[in-house]
Please model this.
Amino acid sequence: MHNLSENMKSKGHISLEVPSSYLESPTRSINIWRRWNKLSRLQKSTIYLLVTIIIFILIFTHQQENKTLHNIKASNEKILPIEPGHKWPPQFQKSLQDEPTVLDEAKLSQDNEVQNAAEEEDKDIDDKGEQDFVDDGDSNQAKEDDFEASAVKDIGLKFNGAQNERQRAVTSAFKHAWQNYRKYAWGKDHLKPLSKTFETWFDLGLTIIDSLDTMIVMGLTEEFEEARDWVKQNLLFSTNKDVNLFETTIRVLGGLLSAYHLSDEKIFLDKATELGDRMMGAFDSISGIPFSDVNLQSRSGHAPKWSPDSSTSEVTTIQLEFRDLSRLTGNSKYEDAISKVSSLVHKLEKDTGLVPIFINANTGKFRSHSTITMGARGDSYYEYLLKQWLQTGKTIDYLKEDYELAMTGVMTKMAKRTVPNNLLFIGEILAGGKEFKPKMDELACFLPGTMALGVKNGMPPGHLDFAQELAYTCFLTFARQPTFLAPEISYFNTARGSTKDFFCKPNDSHYLLRPETIESLWYLYYITGNKTYQDWGWQIFQGIEKYTRVAGGYTTISNVRNPIDTRPKDKMETFFLGETLKYLYLLFADQHEVDLDKWLLNTEAHFMPIYSD
Ligand code: DMJ
Model:
């Protein structure tokens, strides 16, 4: 046996070497005790200290591993079984059991190929006589500088033009879309990029208006000025046409107001005011809940042809825009009308803050037993609770309270986990709460972004963990398709023994160039600083480039499940330019150009200022 004090003397430190005879002895517990008593006070203290440090490290590691679980549990005791040792944030792991993806190892060289091809195609268009859109690096720089000086207010928004390769690639995509729209559908609502013609919906030049502020963000001066001139000379609201109140508000009213804020050009406010006035007839119902449709010429509102009811998300997703109009014009009538709607909906009975998706304009009541969802017709009700609270300087308490309660409802009643990989998803509640459907729309993927914005503004930190997990699932709905594009609807497996976390049905496997997942990636990147979100966005962008880009623009596709049979639908949605490309561009920023303490983005990604009350 070694003598410890000798050992200390000879080596200058304490040895805790254990002799083999000691381990073999039957009386080793007595020996341990004897040896312990023989130790000096210094030796004992050192051993105490070492043991304490080891225990502390073990406790700390354990706490870190379970942080996510604890945070989520704080607001969601009932349902979120998380595997022990669950790590956050996740990287995109190939080890998850599922089909391989085509783009999960995208390399920069491939990215460059896509970008070069994009630039080539843009050049083709220019060569075919589109002289005023020639992409000449130097002159463009000059244009961007001019623009910065003349059109952008430096009040928490400062757009410097593309700063890196990724932002340049997105700008190039925008220009490709825009040039083709300009060439084949100018002044019309939608471009049909395959047949190289157009489609009319409300006949309001929707693509132009939805794109105005994106051009400001990207520093595309000439394009913006031409669009502004079109608004000045050609945008008329007097045609005898029924429009959807919600869609016209978020895209046209929101687009015009945002363009006004960013450019200071009065024409946008004048047009917004005229449009606001023409839409006011939609609120002439017995209850004050607006009808879904309004005729811009007669100014009268009515229910849609297919239903007696309005959609809940639609009547509650017009408030940011109408309030902004009141604040800008000094006329309170717009804000009075939409505040009344919010207040009426606030007073209706709800299950843990969750709302059914239909509401009647005359009775002012929800259609009982209608679906509760974070997808179509439910989604932006929740988004606008938070954003209205922020828009009014956090002064309207019931908006905050309703939002918080609703998020508790989401986390306790709508969130579940998949088998085999324990992914978080949000399903739907049917039949007045009796049924749960494990179905999530791509539309529901706005929620992680909204929850992250909430946490930035004081909502419970557990919401951020929840948001990050959900965003990961949303990302996987893209990443696990061979096109790297998400289907419109995914179904999730929760049964023991399932081998796939989710799947999509043939009729739901279309991708409409939607922005929601990318929008959430931007908020999460903005709020956490985690660049993984940028990389995920870049991978999605490669899918968009590869499978939706055609010579005549970008097209929605019918089938994300087969790269050689995507079945293009021949339509370029306006939100592709208004939201999807804008969020991608913002996501790839090296430094954020939007101050989220001063600005909100409406549900169509148009800028609205935050007021102090
Ligand atoms: C957009 O018009 C808006 O984001 C809306 O809130 C939901 N649907 C589309 C985009 O998918």
Observations:
- The pocket of 1-deoxymannojirimycin is lined by residues 380, 443, 514-516, 575, 579, 603-604 (CB under 6 Å).
